[in-house]
Write a structure and sequence with these properties.
This protein is an alpha+beta fold and 418 residues long. Helices cover 23% and strands 21% of the residues. The protein contains seven helices and 18 strands. The strands form five sheets. Strands 8, 11, 14, 15, 16, 17 and 18 form a seven-stranded mixed β-sheet that branches. A hairpin with a 4-residue loop joins strand 3 and strand 4.
Length: 418
């Protein structure tokens, strides 16, 4: 089991793409593995023949344990080689002393013999995201014309196929107009309760929270921002952009946060064991809810990017996060984070710091409120922001000064040009 992310300690084998006895080449996808953050491809690190597959779909094994063997044609493999210590459920404990990156031939896997369904996306040339989209949508990739290099099926081909299928299908009940959890909750069983094993990402969230709320001395600062000018500026930008794209409120908040951090480097920092690292670059982690947890893709150098690029990148990263296809480089290295629950009509909340970062802002909904303005009470669009600070790095006045700058930039977007 190869370490497919910097923090991966064990992996759950989701699906095998090769069978025992198949010839494999270096770089070929052997299996899909659920890591602590995403579902990633496990690839062959050598040419040969797949032998002694020792892990079945659904099993979880520690990093460094053998899941299969790649051998030369005709080579005999000792049966004792492929004997992994599998972790089959969240209730089974294991020793962590042997965790490490395997330096032998790469692990390979095989699915149990099953009839191949029409929606099997492994028989045609397609991107990993297209394969996953096809599986979820029930689309047969053999019937989709690929527009990628060499006829490869890519995301836009699946989007077109799904749209055509939806048009042809009878109209069902209207979709809900409010956000709904996409997590497939288990069917109700007999008895007073039901135990469900933790997924890899939920295990990681549990560990990360234990290293955040416990050891990190949090304190919180809240301010209320008048969003009238920001809303007017956003509307004007979207009219001007036309078909080139749209700018969301979250894009504006990410940009303003990044620019404010350039003026307050004390908040753009990591706490290390024996020092504080103050970053000159600004990399914003944007919290994204996925089916069974939360992940923070990173918009790098957000202070230098235009709003349209921030929006495009944020949407692409969120899509990859929800399809469990983020690469480690896309969710590590943030220097500050933004968590936004405004779309759920949450007025105010506090977010947990993502170590080693020293701060995170929690963004509430934008809602009209009666406000005293120029001697009159008028409705104004207002938004609350709460900043969580690591007191080992950020003092109260330091965090307050940062929030003051962020508030000024949002209330007067022209301040971002200064």
């Amino acid at each position: 089991m190869e370490a497919l992310s910097p923090t991966m300690e064990e992996g759950r084998l989701v699906k095998w793409h090769k069978r025992e006895g198949d010839a494999v080449k270096t770089g070929e996808t052997l299996a899909e593995v659920e890591t602590d953050k995403a579902v990633m491809d496990l690839v062959a690190r050598a040419d040969g023949v797949l032998r002694q597959v020792a892990v079945t779909e659904g099993q979880t094994v520690p990093v460094g344990n053998v899941v299969a063997v790649i051998a030369a044609p005709g080579e005999t493999v000792d049966a004792s080689v492929a004997t992994p210590a599998a972790v089959t459920s969240g209730n089974v404990k294991r020793e962590m002393g042997n965790v490490g990156v395997a330096t032998a031939t790469a692990p390979v896997a095989v699915a149990p013999a099953q009839p191949v369904s029409g929606a099997d996306a492994t028989r045609v040339k397609a991107s990993p995201l297209a394969k996953r989209m096809a599986k979820e949508a029930g689309v047969d990739l053999k019937l989709v014309t690929g527009s990628g290099p060499g006829g490869r099926v890519v995301r836009r081909d699946l989007e077109g196929a799904a749209a055509r299928r939806d048009v042809a299908a009878p109209v069902s009940a209207p979709a809900p107009t409010f956000p709904v959890s996409r997590f497939p909750f288990p069917e109700r069983a007999e008895g007073a309760y039901q135990d469900v094993p933790l997924t890899q990402i939920r295990k990681t969230i549990a560990k990360r929270l234990a290293t955040s709320l416990g050891p990190i001395p949090h304190f919180f600062l809240t301010t209320e921002v008048d969003m009238e000018r920001a809303a007017e500026a956003r509307d004007a930008l979207n009219r001007q952009l036309g078909d080139r794209g749209k700018v969301s409120f979250n894009d504006v908040i990410v940009k303003a946060t990044a620019l404010a951090l350039t003026k307050h480097r004390a908040c753009n920092a990591w706490f290390q064991d024996d020092h504080i690292r103050y970053w000159n670059e600004v990399h914003i982690g944007v919290a994204v809810a996925v089916e069974d947890g939360l992940i923070t893709p990173v918009i790098r150098n957000a202070d230098l990017k235009p709003l349209l690029e921030i929006g495009r990148e944020a949407r692409e990263l969120a899509e990859k996060a929800r399809s469990r296809r983020l690469q480690p480089s896309e969710y590590t290295g943030s220097t500050f984070s933004v968590s936004n629950l405004g779309m759920f009509e949450i007025d105010q909340f506090t977010a947990v710091i993502n170590p080693p970062e020293a701060g995170i802002i929690a963004v509430g909904t934008i809602t009209p409120k009666p406000v005293a303005w120029d001697g009159q009470v008028v409705p104004r669009r207002r938004m609350r922001i709460t900043m969580s600070c690591d007191h080992r790095v950020i003092d109260g006045a330091t965090g307050a000064a940062f929030l003051k700058t962020l508030k000024e930039m949002l209330e007067n977007p022209l301040a971002m040009l200064l």
